[in-house]
Design brief:
Helix content: 55-70%
Number of strands: 6
Radius of gyration: 28 Å
Largest sheet: 6 strands, parallel
CATH superfamily of the largest domain: HAD superfamily/HAD-like
CATH class of the largest domain: Alpha Beta
Number of helices: 23
Oligomer: single chain
CATH architecture of the largest domain: 3-Layer(aba) Sandwich
Structural class: alpha/beta
Shape: elongated
Number of domains: 3
CATH topology of the largest domain: Rossmann fold
Distance between the termini: 100 Å
Order of helices and strands: EHHHHEHEHEHEHEHHHHHHHHHHHHHHH
Strand content: 5-15%
Length: 493
Amino acid sequence: MTTVGEHDRAPPLIVDLDGTLIRTDLLHESVFGLLKQNPFNVLKLPFWLLRGKAHMKEQIAQRVAVRVDLLPYNDEFLSYLREEHAAGRTLVLATASNQRYARGVAEHLGIFSEVLSSDEARNLSGPRKLQHIESLIPEGQFAYAGNASVDVPIWQHAAAAVLVSPSSSTRSQAESIGNVERVFENNSRRVVELFRAIRPHQWLKNLLVFVPLVLSHQIDNLSLVVNCIIAFAAFSFCASSVYLLNDLLDLDSDRQHPRKCRRPFAAGSLPVTVGVVAMCVLLIIAVGLAMVLPPLFLPALIFYYAMTLAYSIWLKKAALVDGLTLAALYTMRLIAGAAAIAVMPSFWMLAFSMFIFLSLAFIKRYSELLTMGGAGAPQKLAGRGYKPVDMETVAQLGTASGYLAVLVLALYINGDKVDEMYARPEALWMLCPMMLYWVSRMWLLTRRGDMHDDPVVFTIRDVRTWWLAVLTGGALLTSIFWAQVRPFLPLPG
């Protein structure tokens, strides 16, 4: 190695891995991989760290495998490296990541002549990396590609600096040295990517907290409306916190999905550390909002969060259990909405919710199976408990669940208490054919392959769904406020 690059036209290029060659940090990702295996593994981390960071990295690497073929490589920079390699330039991978991961990346790419990395006894970062490089290549006879301020001391000893996705301060420090060979800019905008990651379009689900207010005929009570608005905000922030955690736990599965691979963490356009901070902040805000509502709301929110954690780590892998859990999570929003206004949730409302949202959950799974290649695909759905052969069963279960929801609605409308609660109960019968049409159409489009693999996204964009929502709301409000609506209708008498 002492003679490496002596005859090259350009000095050997030492390449950093985390944040440079790949748009992520393997230590951060592998920690979440460890937590996904067993959340109690987090208790082991401090004890491993007591024996040094290198030991901790080794212990994690022994337990967590990384799919190097799925990592979010910096494509423009990787193309540059391939060109340099083809031109005969010596490339060396030097990283603080564990040797198992570093060697895996090097073997996958096939362009590096040497790999310098951390092992159980040595954490190859900062000054240690520089010392190791200079023990092999004399000072000033190598180029170094990095991305962070910790790389500045190495650039000071290098013949040339290659900057990859540098911050403005890092770029200024590197340019002040005067040996910048090339700069690869980072075009991603973190604020935009974070906004995408928290999925505000999914907040539409949390409008369910208003349903108990409407069904209890208290929509004209301003204080209760305010309570529901606060509950909506609390659930939205809580749900977004869970979305971030779910994405961090599901990196490998998302990277194998044709659409989810573009999610910010899977694509490497948003650092894992940003996700962790945002996740904690959102959860703190959600709990703070919950504390100003009636006392039963906070336990409902906590139970929802705990159930979602269980889903993200364990339950989503179990066929059928995952669908039932998703339906229960939707129903928890209704229960929390009732807690926010201190009313008892209706049995009929909860029964309808479980069936209709179980149908939507199966739509989601059917669409994912169809996207993966349909019944002829050989593999199991990544991170899920379904196989392509299950498609027909999933469709049957989902369709049956949707129709059972309409049956529950019809039985409710036919009940004795409806006459006491609604001024014009017969108007409610309009809901049944509209629901039958909507459920049938959703499954028709799903079977055709025209359904987005997230039914919520589809409903947001679907004009017919919005028209049905308007008609449904009109029928419901008419049945409640008939005396107020009657003067505005062109009816005889």
